[in-house]
Amino acid sequence: MTELPSILTLAPPKDESKGKMQQRHKMEVRSLDLLIKKHIKENKKRKAEAKKETQEWIDILANKHSAEIGDIQSSIEPVEQEKIEAEPIELKEKSKEPKLSKAERKRRKKWAKEKALQDEIDAERHEQALRGGSMRTRENKDIFERLEKDGLSMRIVEVGSDGNCLFNAIVDQIHYLQGKGDTVQEFTALELRKLACDEIESDDTTFSSFYLADEKTKEEYLEEMRKESKWGGFAECIALSRVLKTKLIVHTAFSFPQILGEEFEGRTMHISFHQHWFASGAHYNSLRFLD
């Protein structure tokens, strides 16, 4: 019998908040998705059995998450009441902590909502993938329908699938904006990768959940990500939006677009994320308006 992935057997962290749990659940779903693709690819001679095993993994993770959600919901109110009655001094001490700015509170609230939504999105993607059929066609159709619904007439510009697809997509967006008169600075894909890694390295608060979900230290995660062929993901999207001071909208099928860097005005980049562009795995492309 194939050994279960470690993310299915790890116990949840002690004293984990609901928001942190939702963030961890999202990353566990993404990690399992990658593990499933790898497992099926490595077991082509026993494909049917491998698919059955991965379905069991999905069920185990879904049950694990449901149980954790039930546990935390049932414990929130009594725990808070106990703290109020038994630890008034500690609560007073906590009140001395620096207050968050209005912008920071707004940003954290927005992220909490996005995390909860992403959990639902990832579950739907798994269900869609298990139904079979031409997922690439269905996925592209859904992306275009969502773009049209948002009043965006766009086309997909395919970029290279050399492990640098995210960075290649941003390079294409830079060239597109420059052609429209924007003064955005030009970078190569390799330069963008370095900028993203430097930003991740500087901010543990935002990015620690990403490398912990991969069961890596920050140093291990960045050592891999700095390699030219390493696939960039959502963490790198966040970092690129920051370093380029650009609103970045990631359009994807079966979900709402992810809008990053809303605080940056005057420039917007559009890219698309595909789970099924290639049989080998996920891929980013650039999106340009129809002229």
Considering the chains and any ligands shown, give keywords for the structure:
2 domains; alpha+beta; Papain-like_cys_pep_sf; OTU_dom; 10 helices; 59% helix; five-stranded mixed beta sheet; OTU domain-containing protein; 291 residues; Cathepsin B, Chain A; Peptidase_C85-like
Helix content: 55-70%
* Net shape: globular
Roughly how many Å is the radius of gyration? 21 Å
Residue fraction in strands? 5-15%
Number of continuous helical runs? 10
Q: For the residues shown, what is the average pLDDT?
A: 81
The H-and-E topology, N to C, reads as: HHHHHEHHHHHEEEE
Unreliable sequence segments: 79-96
CATH topology of the largest domain: Cathepsin B, Chain A
Task: Characterize the biggest β-sheet.
Answer: 5 strands, mixed
Instruction: Give the name of the CATH architecture of the largest domain.
Output: Alpha-Beta Complex
